[in-house]
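Re: [help] complex structure
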Amino acid sequence: MTEPVIELQGVSKSFGALRVSDAISLDLRPGEIHAIIGPNGAGKSTLIAQICGTLAPDAGTIRLLGQDVTRLPARARARMGLARTFQISALAMEDTVLQNAVLGALGQAGTPWRFFRPALKDTALRSAAEAALERVGLSDKAATVTAELSHGERRQLEVAVALTLKPRAFVMDEPMAGLGAEGSRTLTGFLDGLRSEAPILLVEHDMDAVFALADRISVLNYGQLIATGTVDEIRADPAVRTAYLGEDA
Amino acid sequence: MSREGIVNAVLLVGFVAVAAWAHFAGEPFTITLATRAAIFALAAVGLNFALGLGGLVSLGHAVFFGIGGYAMGILAFHAQNYTPLMEWPFAIPGTKVMPIIWLTAIVTAALAALVIGLLSLRTSGVYFIMITLAFGQMFFYFAISWSAYGGEDGLSIYIRNGFPGLNTLVPIQFFGICFVLLCAVLWFVSRMERSPFGLMLNAARQVPHRVETVGLDPQRAKLVAFVISGAITALAGALFADLNRFVSPTMFSWQTSGEIMIFVILGGVARLCGPVAGAALFVALEHWLGDLSDYWHIYLGLLLLLIVLFLRGGIVGFLAGRARAHD
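Output below.
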Protein backbone atom coordinates (compact mmCIF):
# COMPACT_ATOMS: atom_id res chain seq x y z
CA MET A 1 0.00 0.00 0.00
CA THR A 2 1.27 3.48 -0.79
CA GLU A 3 2.02 5.76 2.09
CA PRO A 4 -0.76 8.22 3.00
CA VAL A 5 -0.06 11.87 2.25
CA ILE A 6 -1.84 13.07 5.37
CA GLU A 7 -2.32 10.79 8.34
CA LEU A 8 -4.09 11.57 11.61
CA GLN A 9 -3.80 9.31 14.63
CA GLY A 10 -5.93 9.85 17.71
CA VAL A 11 -6.18 13.59 17.22
CA SER A 12 -8.11 15.12 20.13
CA LYS A 13 -9.01 18.66 21.02
CA SER A 14 -11.25 20.04 23.74
CA PHE A 15 -12.55 23.52 24.39
CA GLY A 16 -13.34 23.31 28.09
CA ALA A 17 -15.73 20.42 28.55
CA LEU A 18 -16.56 20.30 24.86
CA ARG A 19 -14.69 17.63 22.92
CA VAL A 20 -14.52 19.03 19.41
CA SER A 21 -12.15 16.34 18.13
CA ASP A 22 -12.42 12.98 19.84
CA ALA A 23 -9.51 10.65 19.00
CA ILE A 24 -9.85 11.10 15.27
CA SER A 25 -7.80 8.87 12.98
CA LEU A 26 -8.03 9.20 9.23
CA ASP A 27 -5.79 9.47 6.22
CA LEU A 28 -5.58 10.96 2.76
CA ARG A 29 -4.07 8.66 0.15
CA PRO A 30 -2.40 9.60 -3.12
CA GLY A 31 -4.81 10.25 -5.98
CA GLU A 32 -7.99 10.35 -3.96
CA ILE A 33 -10.58 12.84 -2.88
CA HIS A 34 -11.49 12.18 0.71
CA ALA A 35 -14.56 14.11 1.81
CA ILE A 36 -15.33 14.96 5.41
CA ILE A 37 -18.99 15.57 6.06
CA GLY A 38 -21.04 16.13 9.16
CA PRO A 39 -23.72 18.39 10.57
CA ASN A 40 -22.95 21.96 11.62
CA GLY A 41 -20.88 21.98 14.78
CA ALA A 42 -19.56 18.47 14.18
CA GLY A 43 -15.98 19.75 14.43
CA LYS A 44 -15.01 19.85 10.76
CA SER A 45 -13.47 23.31 10.80
CA THR A 46 -11.58 22.61 14.03
CA LEU A 47 -10.20 19.47 12.45
CA ILE A 48 -9.06 21.40 9.37
CA ALA A 49 -7.41 23.99 11.61
CA GLN A 50 -5.44 21.23 13.35
CA ILE A 51 -4.40 19.58 10.09
CA CYS A 52 -3.21 22.92 8.71
CA GLY A 53 -1.48 23.99 11.88
CA THR A 54 -3.46 26.99 13.06
CA LEU A 55 -4.72 25.06 16.09
CA ALA A 56 -2.64 22.64 18.17
CA PRO A 57 -4.29 19.34 19.11
CA ASP A 58 -4.31 18.29 22.79
CA ALA A 59 -3.31 14.74 21.87
CA GLY A 60 -2.56 12.60 18.85
CA THR A 61 -0.22 12.98 15.90
CA ILE A 62 -0.55 14.49 12.45
CA ARG A 63 1.75 13.29 9.70
CA LEU A 64 2.36 14.97 6.39
CA LEU A 65 4.23 12.93 3.76
CA GLY A 66 5.30 10.57 6.52
CA GLN A 67 6.76 13.29 8.72
CA ASP A 68 5.35 14.19 12.11
CA VAL A 69 4.15 17.81 11.78
CA THR A 70 1.99 17.97 14.90
CA ARG A 71 4.06 20.77 16.41
CA LEU A 72 4.96 22.60 13.20
CA PRO A 73 3.40 26.01 12.48
CA ALA A 74 1.05 26.49 9.54
CA ARG A 75 3.68 28.11 7.33
CA ALA A 76 6.07 25.18 7.74
CA ARG A 77 3.33 22.77 6.69
CA ALA A 78 2.54 25.01 3.74
CA ARG A 79 6.18 24.90 2.67
CA MET A 80 6.07 21.08 2.86
CA GLY A 81 3.28 21.15 0.29
CA LEU A 82 0.00 21.54 2.12
CA ALA A 83 -2.34 23.95 0.33
CA ARG A 84 -5.41 25.17 2.15
CA THR A 85 -8.39 27.02 0.82
CA PHE A 86 -10.60 28.91 3.24
CA GLN A 87 -14.32 28.68 3.77
CA ILE A 88 -14.45 32.47 3.93
CA SER A 89 -12.17 33.82 1.24
CA ALA A 90 -8.86 34.99 2.71
CA LEU A 91 -7.60 37.28 0.00
CA ALA A 92 -5.88 40.65 0.00
CA MET A 93 -8.93 42.61 -1.07
CA GLU A 94 -7.07 45.84 -1.90
CA ASP A 95 -4.67 44.02 -4.21
CA THR A 96 -5.29 42.83 -7.73
CA VAL A 97 -6.18 39.26 -8.59
CA LEU A 98 -2.73 38.81 -10.11
CA GLN A 99 -1.02 40.10 -6.96
CA ASN A 100 -2.90 37.57 -4.86
CA ALA A 101 -1.77 34.78 -7.13
CA VAL A 102 1.81 36.11 -7.20
CA LEU A 103 1.81 35.99 -3.39
CA GLY A 104 1.18 32.26 -3.62
CA ALA A 105 3.95 31.85 -6.20
CA LEU A 106 6.24 33.87 -3.95
CA GLY A 107 5.52 31.52 -1.06
CA GLN A 108 6.20 28.53 -3.29
CA ALA A 109 9.48 30.04 -4.49
CA GLY A 110 10.37 30.92 -0.89
CA THR A 111 12.15 34.13 -1.89
CA PRO A 112 10.23 36.99 -0.25
CA TRP A 113 13.28 38.86 1.12
CA ARG A 114 13.95 40.88 -1.99
CA PHE A 115 13.50 44.62 -1.72
CA PHE A 116 14.19 46.17 -5.10
CA ARG A 117 12.88 44.52 -8.21
CA PRO A 118 9.10 44.75 -8.58
CA ALA A 119 7.44 41.42 -7.79
CA LEU A 120 5.26 41.61 -10.88
CA LYS A 121 8.31 42.01 -13.11
CA ASP A 122 9.70 38.69 -11.89
CA THR A 123 8.83 36.53 -14.87
CA ALA A 124 9.04 33.23 -12.97
CA LEU A 125 6.61 34.40 -10.28
CA ARG A 126 4.36 36.07 -12.78
CA SER A 127 4.10 33.15 -15.16
CA ALA A 128 3.38 30.73 -12.30
CA ALA A 129 0.63 33.04 -11.09
CA GLU A 130 -0.80 33.58 -14.56
CA ALA A 131 -0.81 29.84 -15.26
CA ALA A 132 -2.84 29.24 -12.09
CA LEU A 133 -5.32 32.00 -12.98
CA GLU A 134 -5.63 30.54 -16.47
CA ARG A 135 -6.52 27.14 -15.06
CA VAL A 136 -9.38 28.45 -12.93
CA GLY A 137 -10.57 30.75 -15.72
CA LEU A 138 -9.66 34.09 -14.15
CA SER A 139 -7.10 35.26 -16.71
CA ASP A 140 -9.24 38.12 -17.92
CA LYS A 141 -9.66 39.37 -14.35
CA ALA A 142 -5.93 39.46 -13.53
CA ALA A 143 -5.77 43.26 -13.28
CA THR A 144 -9.03 43.58 -11.33
CA VAL A 145 -8.92 44.63 -7.68
CA THR A 146 -9.97 41.58 -5.67
CA ALA A 147 -12.66 43.47 -3.74
CA GLU A 148 -14.50 43.95 -7.04
CA LEU A 149 -14.74 40.22 -7.79
CA SER A 150 -18.02 38.36 -7.44
CA HIS A 151 -18.32 35.80 -4.68
CA GLY A 152 -17.87 32.94 -7.14
CA GLU A 153 -14.76 34.53 -8.64
CA ARG A 154 -13.24 34.88 -5.19
CA ARG A 155 -13.77 31.16 -4.66
CA GLN A 156 -11.97 30.54 -7.95
CA LEU A 157 -9.11 32.79 -6.85
CA GLU A 158 -8.83 30.86 -3.57
CA VAL A 159 -8.27 27.72 -5.62
CA ALA A 160 -5.83 29.51 -7.93
CA VAL A 161 -3.68 30.64 -5.00
CA ALA A 162 -3.63 27.04 -3.76
CA LEU A 163 -2.53 25.89 -7.22
CA THR A 164 0.43 28.30 -7.27
CA LEU A 165 1.83 26.44 -4.27
CA LYS A 166 2.32 23.31 -6.44
CA PRO A 167 1.10 21.35 -3.42
CA ARG A 168 1.44 17.70 -2.46
CA ALA A 169 -2.01 17.81 -0.84
CA PHE A 170 -5.03 20.12 -0.86
CA VAL A 171 -7.20 20.81 2.15
CA MET A 172 -10.34 22.58 1.01
CA ASP A 173 -12.85 23.99 3.44
CA GLU A 174 -16.22 24.23 1.68
CA PRO A 175 -14.96 25.41 -1.71
CA MET A 176 -18.54 25.30 -3.08
CA ALA A 177 -19.97 27.51 -0.33
CA GLY A 178 -22.21 30.17 -1.81
CA LEU A 179 -21.72 29.09 -5.40
CA GLY A 180 -24.77 28.69 -7.59
CA ALA A 181 -25.68 25.37 -9.19
CA GLU A 182 -23.71 26.31 -12.30
CA GLY A 183 -20.63 27.36 -10.33
CA SER A 184 -20.75 24.20 -8.24
CA ARG A 185 -20.88 22.04 -11.36
CA THR A 186 -17.89 23.81 -12.91
CA LEU A 187 -15.81 23.56 -9.75
CA THR A 188 -16.81 19.91 -9.27
CA GLY A 189 -15.50 19.15 -12.74
CA PHE A 190 -12.30 21.02 -11.99
CA LEU A 191 -11.63 19.26 -8.69
CA ASP A 192 -12.35 15.92 -10.36
CA GLY A 193 -9.35 16.47 -12.61
CA LEU A 194 -7.20 17.87 -9.83
CA ARG A 195 -7.00 14.69 -7.76
CA SER A 196 -4.41 13.16 -10.04
CA GLU A 197 -2.11 16.12 -9.31
CA ALA A 198 -2.48 15.99 -5.56
CA PRO A 199 -5.07 14.34 -3.33
CA ILE A 200 -7.80 16.52 -1.81
CA LEU A 201 -9.18 16.49 1.70
CA LEU A 202 -12.54 18.07 1.09
CA VAL A 203 -14.92 19.47 3.66
CA GLU A 204 -18.16 20.18 1.88
CA HIS A 205 -21.85 20.66 2.55
CA ASP A 206 -22.91 20.25 -1.06
CA MET A 207 -23.89 16.56 -1.05
CA ASP A 208 -24.21 16.33 -4.84
CA ALA A 209 -20.60 17.44 -5.13
CA VAL A 210 -19.45 15.10 -2.36
CA PHE A 211 -21.16 12.05 -3.84
CA ALA A 212 -19.91 12.94 -7.32
CA LEU A 213 -16.30 13.49 -6.28
CA ALA A 214 -15.39 11.51 -3.20
CA ASP A 215 -13.45 8.27 -3.37
CA ARG A 216 -13.98 7.95 0.36
CA ILE A 217 -16.14 9.79 2.84
CA SER A 218 -15.62 10.27 6.57
CA VAL A 219 -18.52 11.33 8.74
CA LEU A 220 -18.01 13.49 11.81
CA ASN A 221 -20.62 13.92 14.50
CA TYR A 222 -20.10 15.72 17.82
CA GLY A 223 -16.34 15.51 17.36
CA GLN A 224 -16.35 11.79 16.71
CA LEU A 225 -15.56 10.00 13.49
CA ILE A 226 -18.58 7.71 13.17
CA ALA A 227 -17.79 6.17 9.79
CA THR A 228 -15.28 6.10 6.95
CA GLY A 229 -15.95 4.36 3.66
CA THR A 230 -16.81 4.57 0.02
CA VAL A 231 -19.82 6.51 -1.15
CA ASP A 232 -21.96 3.38 -1.22
CA GLU A 233 -20.84 2.21 2.20
CA ILE A 234 -21.62 5.62 3.70
CA ARG A 235 -25.01 5.77 2.02
CA ALA A 236 -25.83 2.40 3.53
CA ASP A 237 -24.40 2.98 7.00
CA PRO A 238 -27.24 3.09 9.54
CA ALA A 239 -25.32 5.26 12.05
CA VAL A 240 -24.68 7.84 9.35
CA ARG A 241 -28.30 7.82 8.28
CA THR A 242 -29.39 8.47 11.84
CA ALA A 243 -26.82 11.15 12.61
CA TYR A 244 -26.63 13.04 9.43
CA LEU A 245 -28.72 12.14 6.46
CA GLY A 246 -31.85 11.92 8.57
CA GLU A 247 -33.83 8.84 9.61
CA ASP A 248 -35.83 8.53 6.43
CA ALA A 249 -33.05 9.38 3.99
CA MET B 1 2.02 59.38 -15.54
CA SER B 2 -0.76 58.59 -13.10
CA ARG B 3 -2.62 61.35 -11.29
CA GLU B 4 -0.81 60.51 -8.08
CA GLY B 5 2.51 60.67 -9.95
CA ILE B 6 1.67 64.20 -11.08
CA VAL B 7 0.69 65.24 -7.54
CA ASN B 8 3.96 63.79 -6.22
CA ALA B 9 6.02 65.56 -8.86
CA VAL B 10 4.28 68.88 -8.18
CA LEU B 11 4.92 68.48 -4.45
CA LEU B 12 8.62 67.79 -4.84
CA VAL B 13 9.15 70.45 -7.50
CA GLY B 14 7.28 72.84 -5.19
CA PHE B 15 9.88 72.21 -2.49
CA VAL B 16 12.71 73.03 -4.87
CA ALA B 17 10.88 76.09 -6.19
CA VAL B 18 10.26 77.54 -2.73
CA ALA B 19 13.85 76.98 -1.65
CA ALA B 20 15.27 78.38 -4.91
CA TRP B 21 13.03 81.43 -4.74
CA ALA B 22 14.01 82.06 -1.12
CA HIS B 23 17.67 81.66 -1.99
CA PHE B 24 17.61 84.25 -4.77
CA ALA B 25 15.26 86.57 -2.89
CA GLY B 26 17.59 86.50 0.10
CA GLU B 27 15.11 84.89 2.50
CA PRO B 28 17.23 82.35 4.42
CA PHE B 29 14.48 81.83 6.99
CA THR B 30 12.16 80.48 4.31
CA ILE B 31 14.88 78.04 3.27
CA THR B 32 15.09 76.93 6.89
CA LEU B 33 11.32 76.35 6.89
CA ALA B 34 11.58 74.28 3.71
CA THR B 35 14.44 72.30 5.25
CA ARG B 36 12.38 71.72 8.38
CA ALA B 37 9.48 70.49 6.26
CA ALA B 38 11.75 68.16 4.25
CA ILE B 39 13.15 66.66 7.46
CA PHE B 40 9.70 66.20 9.00
CA ALA B 41 8.60 64.63 5.73
CA LEU B 42 11.48 62.16 5.90
CA ALA B 43 10.59 61.23 9.49
CA ALA B 44 7.00 60.67 8.42
CA VAL B 45 7.99 58.65 5.34
CA GLY B 46 9.62 56.31 7.86
CA LEU B 47 6.46 56.02 9.95
CA ASN B 48 4.27 55.72 6.85
CA PHE B 49 6.17 52.63 5.76
CA ALA B 50 5.28 50.81 8.98
CA LEU B 51 1.83 52.38 9.31
CA GLY B 52 0.61 52.47 5.73
CA LEU B 53 2.05 49.28 4.33
CA GLY B 54 2.46 47.22 7.49
CA GLY B 55 -0.59 48.49 9.39
CA LEU B 56 1.58 49.10 12.46
CA VAL B 57 0.18 52.10 14.33
CA SER B 58 3.31 53.14 16.19
CA LEU B 59 2.93 55.97 18.66
CA GLY B 60 6.59 55.62 19.56
CA HIS B 61 8.45 56.80 16.51
CA ALA B 62 9.94 59.64 18.57
CA VAL B 63 12.28 56.93 19.87
CA PHE B 64 13.92 56.67 16.47
CA PHE B 65 13.76 60.40 15.79
CA GLY B 66 15.44 60.97 19.14
CA ILE B 67 18.05 58.27 18.59
CA GLY B 68 18.97 59.99 15.34
CA GLY B 69 19.17 63.31 17.17
CA TYR B 70 21.31 61.97 19.98
CA ALA B 71 23.56 60.04 17.57
CA MET B 72 24.36 63.40 16.01
CA GLY B 73 24.52 65.22 19.36
CA ILE B 74 26.79 62.74 21.11
CA LEU B 75 29.22 62.27 18.21
CA ALA B 76 29.48 66.02 17.57
CA PHE B 77 29.72 66.80 21.30
CA HIS B 78 32.80 64.61 21.64
CA ALA B 79 34.27 66.01 18.46
CA GLN B 80 33.89 69.62 19.57
CA ASN B 81 35.31 68.83 23.05
CA TYR B 82 38.10 66.66 21.67
CA THR B 83 37.14 63.85 24.03
CA PRO B 84 36.78 60.22 22.99
CA LEU B 85 33.34 58.64 22.92
CA MET B 86 34.80 55.69 24.76
CA GLU B 87 38.32 54.55 25.59
CA TRP B 88 37.90 50.93 26.49
CA PRO B 89 38.25 48.34 24.96
CA PHE B 90 39.18 50.56 22.04
CA ALA B 91 39.04 54.32 21.58
CA ILE B 92 36.21 55.78 19.53
CA PRO B 93 36.50 59.48 18.76
CA GLY B 94 33.57 61.80 18.07
CA THR B 95 32.96 63.01 14.54
CA LYS B 96 31.59 66.00 12.67
CA VAL B 97 31.18 64.11 9.40
CA MET B 98 27.52 63.81 8.42
CA PRO B 99 27.60 60.46 6.57
CA ILE B 100 29.23 58.77 9.56
CA ILE B 101 26.67 60.32 11.88
CA TRP B 102 23.82 59.21 9.63
CA LEU B 103 25.15 55.67 9.48
CA THR B 104 25.47 55.57 13.27
CA ALA B 105 21.92 56.92 13.64
CA ILE B 106 20.51 54.37 11.19
CA VAL B 107 22.28 51.35 12.68
CA THR B 108 21.50 52.30 16.28
CA ALA B 109 17.84 52.96 15.51
CA ALA B 110 17.55 49.73 13.52
CA LEU B 111 18.83 47.78 16.52
CA ALA B 112 16.43 49.61 18.85
CA ALA B 113 13.57 48.98 16.42
CA LEU B 114 14.46 45.30 16.30
CA VAL B 115 14.23 44.98 20.09
CA ILE B 116 11.11 47.17 20.40
CA GLY B 117 9.51 45.43 17.43
CA LEU B 118 10.20 41.93 18.77
CA LEU B 119 8.39 42.83 22.00
CA SER B 120 5.65 45.07 20.57
CA LEU B 121 4.66 42.79 17.70
CA ARG B 122 3.52 40.19 20.19
CA THR B 123 0.53 42.50 20.55
CA SER B 124 -1.68 44.23 18.03
CA GLY B 125 -4.28 46.97 17.76
CA VAL B 126 -4.58 49.31 20.71
CA TYR B 127 -2.05 47.30 22.75
CA PHE B 128 0.56 47.86 20.06
CA ILE B 129 -0.13 51.60 20.23
CA MET B 130 0.24 51.61 24.00
CA ILE B 131 3.42 49.54 24.12
CA THR B 132 5.16 51.68 21.50
CA LEU B 133 4.06 54.76 23.44
CA ALA B 134 5.51 53.22 26.60
CA PHE B 135 8.87 52.63 24.89
CA GLY B 136 8.84 56.25 23.79
CA GLN B 137 8.34 57.42 27.36
CA MET B 138 11.15 55.14 28.58
CA PHE B 139 13.59 56.73 26.16
CA PHE B 140 12.28 60.21 27.02
CA TYR B 141 12.90 59.82 30.75
CA PHE B 142 16.22 58.13 30.12
CA ALA B 143 17.36 61.12 28.04
CA ILE B 144 16.19 63.53 30.76
CA SER B 145 18.25 61.73 33.36
CA TRP B 146 21.33 61.24 31.16
CA SER B 147 23.33 64.07 32.67
CA ALA B 148 26.52 63.24 30.76
CA TYR B 149 24.76 64.57 27.66
CA GLY B 150 22.92 67.54 29.06
CA GLY B 151 20.00 65.78 30.73
CA GLU B 152 16.90 67.90 30.55
CA ASP B 153 18.78 70.84 28.99
CA GLY B 154 19.94 68.89 25.98
CA LEU B 155 23.14 69.43 24.01
CA SER B 156 24.16 72.41 21.94
CA ILE B 157 26.45 71.86 18.98
CA TYR B 158 28.21 75.05 18.03
CA ILE B 159 28.92 74.41 14.39
CA ARG B 160 26.80 72.39 11.99
CA ASN B 161 28.40 69.11 10.99
CA GLY B 162 30.13 68.87 7.66
CA PHE B 163 29.52 67.03 4.44
CA PRO B 164 32.51 66.41 2.15
CA GLY B 165 32.58 69.00 -0.61
CA LEU B 166 29.75 71.16 0.72
CA ASN B 167 29.44 74.11 3.07
CA THR B 168 26.55 73.00 5.27
CA LEU B 169 26.35 76.40 6.94
CA VAL B 170 24.90 77.83 3.72
CA PRO B 171 21.14 77.28 4.12
CA ILE B 172 20.51 76.27 0.52
CA GLN B 173 23.28 73.67 0.62
CA PHE B 174 21.97 72.09 3.80
CA PHE B 175 18.47 72.13 2.30
CA GLY B 176 19.94 70.36 -0.74
CA ILE B 177 21.35 67.58 1.43
CA CYS B 178 18.04 67.06 3.24
CA PHE B 179 15.99 67.20 0.06
CA VAL B 180 18.21 64.77 -1.85
CA LEU B 181 18.04 62.33 1.07
CA LEU B 182 14.25 62.68 1.14
CA CYS B 183 14.02 61.93 -2.58
CA ALA B 184 16.44 59.02 -2.31
CA VAL B 185 14.42 57.48 0.53
CA LEU B 186 11.15 58.05 -1.36
CA TRP B 187 12.60 56.24 -4.35
CA PHE B 188 13.84 53.41 -2.14
CA VAL B 189 10.40 53.13 -0.44
CA SER B 190 8.55 53.15 -3.77
CA ARG B 191 10.77 50.29 -4.95
CA MET B 192 10.16 48.34 -1.74
CA GLU B 193 6.39 48.77 -2.03
CA ARG B 194 6.41 46.91 -5.34
CA SER B 195 9.06 44.37 -4.41
CA PRO B 196 8.34 40.80 -3.31
CA PHE B 197 8.86 41.98 0.26
CA GLY B 198 6.33 44.78 -0.24
CA LEU B 199 3.81 42.35 -1.68
CA MET B 200 4.22 40.07 1.33
CA LEU B 201 3.98 42.98 3.79
CA ASN B 202 0.94 44.41 2.08
CA ALA B 203 -0.82 41.04 2.32
CA ALA B 204 0.37 40.57 5.91
CA ARG B 205 -1.47 43.76 6.85
CA GLN B 206 -4.69 42.69 5.15
CA VAL B 207 -4.85 38.91 5.68
CA PRO B 208 -2.01 37.57 7.87
CA HIS B 209 -3.47 34.05 7.85
CA ARG B 210 -3.28 33.98 4.05
CA VAL B 211 0.43 34.83 4.20
CA GLU B 212 0.92 31.94 6.64
CA THR B 213 -0.97 29.64 4.33
CA VAL B 214 1.41 30.26 1.44
CA GLY B 215 4.33 29.41 3.72
CA LEU B 216 5.55 32.92 4.60
CA ASP B 217 5.89 34.59 7.98
CA PRO B 218 3.68 37.69 8.29
CA GLN B 219 5.07 38.67 11.70
CA ARG B 220 8.65 38.65 10.45
CA ALA B 221 7.60 40.80 7.49
CA LYS B 222 6.12 43.34 9.90
CA LEU B 223 9.22 43.24 12.09
CA VAL B 224 11.50 43.98 9.14
CA ALA B 225 9.17 46.79 8.07
CA PHE B 226 9.32 48.24 11.59
CA VAL B 227 13.14 48.15 11.54
CA ILE B 228 13.35 49.85 8.14
CA SER B 229 10.78 52.38 9.29
CA GLY B 230 12.73 53.21 12.46
CA ALA B 231 15.99 53.57 10.53
CA ILE B 232 14.44 56.09 8.12
CA THR B 233 12.98 58.16 10.96
CA ALA B 234 16.37 58.13 12.72
CA LEU B 235 18.03 59.60 9.63
CA ALA B 236 15.50 62.43 9.82
CA GLY B 237 16.29 62.85 13.53
CA ALA B 238 20.00 63.29 12.81
CA LEU B 239 19.21 65.94 10.19
CA PHE B 240 16.76 67.71 12.50
CA ALA B 241 19.39 67.96 15.23
CA ASP B 242 21.81 69.37 12.68
CA LEU B 243 19.25 71.89 11.46
CA ASN B 244 18.82 73.23 15.00
CA ARG B 245 22.40 72.50 16.12
CA PHE B 246 20.69 71.31 19.27
CA VAL B 247 19.25 68.09 20.69
CA SER B 248 17.06 67.70 23.73
CA PRO B 249 14.80 65.07 25.25
CA THR B 250 11.86 66.79 23.50
CA MET B 251 12.83 64.81 20.40
CA PHE B 252 11.88 61.66 22.37
CA SER B 253 8.58 63.05 23.68
CA TRP B 254 5.20 61.56 22.87
CA GLN B 255 4.24 64.90 21.32
CA THR B 256 6.94 64.28 18.72
CA SER B 257 5.51 60.81 18.02
CA GLY B 258 2.09 62.40 17.69
CA GLU B 259 3.33 65.07 15.31
CA ILE B 260 5.00 62.52 13.04
CA MET B 261 1.72 60.65 12.93
CA ILE B 262 -0.16 63.88 12.18
CA PHE B 263 2.08 64.47 9.13
CA VAL B 264 1.13 61.04 7.83
CA ILE B 265 -2.59 61.44 8.47
CA LEU B 266 -2.75 64.99 7.06
CA GLY B 267 -0.99 63.93 3.89
CA GLY B 268 -2.56 60.51 3.39
CA VAL B 269 -1.77 57.17 5.02
CA ALA B 270 -0.05 54.66 2.73
CA ARG B 271 0.42 57.23 -0.04
CA LEU B 272 4.05 57.56 -1.12
CA CYS B 273 4.19 61.36 -0.87
CA GLY B 274 1.46 61.71 1.76
CA PRO B 275 4.03 62.47 4.47
CA VAL B 276 5.63 65.10 2.23
CA ALA B 277 2.32 66.91 1.75
CA GLY B 278 1.46 66.55 5.43
CA ALA B 279 4.78 67.86 6.71
CA ALA B 280 4.75 70.79 4.27
CA LEU B 281 1.24 71.76 5.33
CA PHE B 282 2.15 71.41 9.00
CA VAL B 283 5.20 73.65 8.72
CA ALA B 284 3.26 76.23 6.71
CA LEU B 285 0.46 76.32 9.29
CA GLU B 286 2.95 76.39 12.14
CA HIS B 287 4.54 79.44 10.55
CA TRP B 288 1.48 81.41 9.47
CA LEU B 289 -0.98 80.49 12.20
CA GLY B 290 1.82 80.67 14.76
CA ASP B 291 2.20 84.33 13.79
CA LEU B 292 -1.51 84.95 14.35
CA SER B 293 -1.96 83.14 17.63
CA ASP B 294 -0.03 81.20 20.24
CA TYR B 295 -2.90 78.75 20.25
CA TRP B 296 -2.54 77.79 16.59
CA HIS B 297 -2.75 74.11 17.50
CA ILE B 298 -6.51 74.60 17.92
CA TYR B 299 -6.79 75.31 14.20
CA LEU B 300 -4.46 72.43 13.40
CA GLY B 301 -6.68 70.17 15.47
CA LEU B 302 -9.76 71.41 13.64
CA LEU B 303 -8.12 70.76 10.28
CA LEU B 304 -7.04 67.27 11.36
CA LEU B 305 -10.59 66.55 12.47
CA LEU B 306 -12.00 67.68 9.12
CA ILE B 307 -9.47 65.60 7.19
CA VAL B 308 -10.11 62.47 9.23
CA LEU B 309 -13.88 62.93 8.95
CA PHE B 310 -14.19 63.97 5.33
CA LEU B 311 -10.94 63.25 3.49
CA ARG B 312 -9.95 59.76 4.46
CA GLY B 313 -7.10 59.73 1.97
CA GLY B 314 -5.60 62.95 3.32
CA ILE B 315 -4.33 65.67 1.02
CA VAL B 316 -2.88 63.26 -1.53
CA GLY B 317 -6.07 61.23 -1.50
CA PHE B 318 -8.06 64.42 -2.12
CA LEU B 319 -5.85 65.52 -5.01
CA ALA B 320 -5.06 62.18 -6.62
CA GLY B 321 -8.16 60.10 -5.89
CA ARG B 322 -8.22 56.59 -4.48
CA ALA B 323 -5.04 54.58 -4.28
CA ARG B 324 -4.54 52.21 -7.17
CA ALA B 325 -3.04 48.77 -6.84
CA HIS B 326 0.34 48.53 -8.51
CA ASP B 327 0.45 46.87 -11.88
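The two ends of chain A are 35 Å apart (CA to CA).
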